[in-house]
Amino acid sequence: MAASLLRLHFHRYTNFHYIIGCDASVLFDDTDTFTGEKNADPNINSLRGFEVIDAINSNLEFLCPGIVSCADILATVARDSVVLSNGPGWDVQMGRKDSLTASFNDTNNNLPFPKEDLNTLITKFQKAGLDIVDIVALSGAHTIGQARCSTFNATLHDRSSSAEPGDLDFLASLTQFCSNSPDSDNPLAPFDLVTPATFDNQYFINLLSGEAVLPSDHALVAGNSPTLEIVKIYARDHQSFFTDFTRSMLRMGSLNPLTGENGQIRRNCRVIN
């Protein structure tokens, strides 16, 4: 659940809605007259943990109504999920307001996809004011959690045909996870087969060993990638990764937030007041 709650934070903050930014719009439910973001292609069958946010929101509204926004809850829960997974902590910037709308189309068009190449990822991050250090550091969130096999199954055969002998065991392990998953409809495989529930730098060690689950992960180390040297630094020094990850989380969390008279503090994170 820690990885899922961190992903909730990412899937709104990295949506790169350049005007609104960090606004908890991902929490809206669809209605007969309103289309939210939960069923957009990058989110459907991927995001979970909404009930956890509901419970926190309900308790806060009971104790101090109208004070803490759903956007700030997401930011705080993401931080706590990292800490509870043995990762770093940071002082969460508070004071955001919640959006009055959502953007299904922006989610489909602007959220980074797991099959995208590095140039596409760089372009999307740069449009949001983030750089290649942010790309690599934030990708390190894949040190915990799982990926749906549908996001990489199509590339397994191609990767196997060109893989080094040492990489074939890893690709076989992925195939086995996907074949033996208890959820046969939406099989899952861990991003990090070594320490899947611990927030550490093992993800970067795995990348350098050819054990990248998603094509977008592999892109960080492919060829003469400009991100390769950053990956090597993080693989050698977990503290460098932790320092840059917290910096990037704070940068991402400050992308054009709604403040002041803009937006509202939702009493129920799933609907407008």
From TrEMBL:
The reaction(s) this protein catalyses: 2 a phenolic donor + H2O2 = 2 a phenolic radical donor + 2 H2O
Binding site for Ca(2+) 1: G21, D23, S25, E37
Domain Plant heme peroxidase family profile: 1-273
Residues bound to substrate: P112
Cysteine pairings via disulfide bonds: C70-C269, C149-C178
Keywords carried by this UniProt record: Calcium, Disulfide bond, Heme, Iron, Metal-binding, Oxidoreductase, Peroxidase
Cofactor(s) demanded: heme b; Ca(2+)
Pfam family, one: peroxidase
Annotated cofactor note: Binds 1 heme b (iron(II)-protoporphyrin IX) group per subunit. Binds 2 calcium ions per subunit.
GO terms for biological process, alphabetical: hydrogen peroxide catabolic process; response to oxidative stress
InterPro entries found in the cross-reference section: Haem_peroxidase, Haem_peroxidase_sf, Peroxidase_pln, Peroxidases_heam-ligand_BS, Secretory_peroxidase
Annotated site (Transition state stabilizer): R7
Residues at the active site: H11 (proton acceptor)
SUPFAM superfamilies from the UniProt entry: Heme-dependent peroxidases (SSF48113)
Binding residues annotated for Ca(2+) 2, in chain numbering: T143, D192, T195, D200
Entry binding sites for heme b: H142
Entry's Gene Ontology molecular function annotations: heme binding; lactoperoxidase activity; metal ion binding
The family this protein is said to belong to: Belongs to the peroxidase family. Ascorbate peroxidase subfamily.
Name under which the protein is recorded: Plant heme peroxidase family profile domain-containing protein
Native organism: Papaver atlanticum
Organism phylogeny: Eukaryota, Viridiplantae, Streptophyta, Embryophyta, Tracheophyta
